Amino acid sequence: MTVQQIQAKPPQGRSFFAIRVEIKGQPWGVLVVDSRQPTIHANRARNQYKPPFMTLLNNLLQRI
Q1: Where are the domains of the chain?
Q2: Residue 31 pairs with which residues in a beta bridge?
Q3: How confident is the model over 49-59, as pLDDT tens digits?
Q4: For residues 12, 22, 50 and 42, what is the CA-based torsion angle, rounded to 10 degrees?
Q5: 27 preceded by cis ω (within 30°)?
Q6: Pairing with 12, which of 5, 38, 39, 43 sits 20 to 30 Å away (CA)?
Q7: What is the percent of the chain with per-residue pLDDT over 70, rounded to a whole number?
Q8: How far apart are CA 60 and CA 64, in angstroms?
C-alpha cells in the first residue's frame, strides 16, 4: 500500500496477535491475526493455530 492509500483509508485492525512460525526448528516468520475488536482473546487465537493447522502450514512452507 502506498502512503496515500493508507492516509485515505486507514487500516481497520484495532488489535493484533502474532504467532511465530518455524520451519525445521528455525524461525521463518510470523502469522499475524488482526481484529476490528478492541481486544483479541490471545488464548482462543493461539488454540486455533495448533496442529493440525501448524503442521500443514510447516509442510507447505518447507516447499517454498
Answers
A1: 11-61
A2: 19
A3: 787 888 888 88
A4: -40
A5: no
A6: 43
A7: 98
A8: 7
